[in-house]
Amino acid sequence: MTVVWTVHAVATKGGALQRKPMPTRSLFVTQLYEADLGDQPLLDELAHSIEALARDDEAGRSWSRAHRYAGYTSYASLNDLPKRDPAFSDLAKVLQRHAVAFARELGWDVKPKLDSLWANLLKSGGHHSGHIHPQSMISGTLYVEAPKGSGATRFEDPRLPLMMAAPSRGDTFVTVEPRPGLLLLWESWLRHEVLPGTGKGERLSISFNFA
C-alpha cells in the first residue's frame, strides 16, 4: 500500500492555522513495467528482420496500405514469427521472462503465455490512434530502432470515462519517449496510442500480447 501525506489546515486556539498531515491511500494503481533489453546484437538482428519483412511480406504491405498504416506491420499477415526467424525466437524467450516478472509484480498467480507478436515499421509522421488489446492479459512493445523525433507512446488514465464533473487535471495522460532497447509491458485493458513522429527516420518496434 502506498501512503501519500496530504496537508490539512486546522485552526489553533489563537486563531493561527496549523498545517497537519493527513494520510491518504492510493487505490487501484496502474502499473507500467519498464526494462532495458541490454542486448545490442539481438536488436541488430531484429532490425534486419523487420526491414526484410517490410520489403518481402506483400500481404502485410497490402494490409498496411488498405488500413492507411504509415509504413509496414505484420499484424494481420504473419502469426508465427518466432518459428520463422531465430531472432524472434530468442526474443520470445526474453519476453516470457519479463512477462512472468510483471505478473508477479501484479500479484497474479498465473504464468502468462505469449499469444501473438508482430513487427512494425512506422514512417515519420505516422501514428496509431488510441486502442486496447482485447482478449489478452499483458501487452507490450519493444523499441528496436527509434531515431530522434520518433513517435512516443501515450497512455490514458483508465478512469477518464468515469470522471464526469471532475475538474481538469494535468496527469490524464502519461507519455513515454521511445529509445532502442526499451521494453514496456502493461495490462491489456490500458488504452494507449502512438503519437505522430517529428523526425525523419523510421521507428522499428515489436508489439506482442500475452494470454
Describe it.
- The protein is an alpha+beta fold.
- β1 (3-11) and β2 (17-25) form a beta hairpin.
- The model is unreliable at 1-8 (pLDDT under 50).
- The longest helix is centred in the middle third of the chain and has 20 residues, at 86-105.
- It has four helices and twelve strands.
- Strands 3-10-7-12-5-4 form a six-stranded antiparallel β-sheet.
- It has one domain: q2cbj1_9rhob like domain (Jelly Rolls, Sandwich), CATH 2.60.120.
Order of helices and strands: EEEHHEHHEEEEEEEE
The end-to-end span amounts to 27 Å
> Count of DSSP E strands?
12
* Low-confidence sequence ranges: 1-8
**Percentage of residues assigned to helices:** 10-25%
The CATH C-level class name: Mainly Beta
CATH architecture type: Sandwich
Q: Provide the spatial order of strands within the biggest beta sheet.
A: 3-10-7-12-5-4
Shape: globular
Domains, number: 1
Content-based structural category: alpha+beta
CATH homologous superfamily label:
q2cbj1_9rhob like domain
Indicate the radius of gyration in whole angstroms: 21 Å
Biggest sheet record: 6 strands, antiparallel
What is the typical, i.e. mean, pLDDT?
91
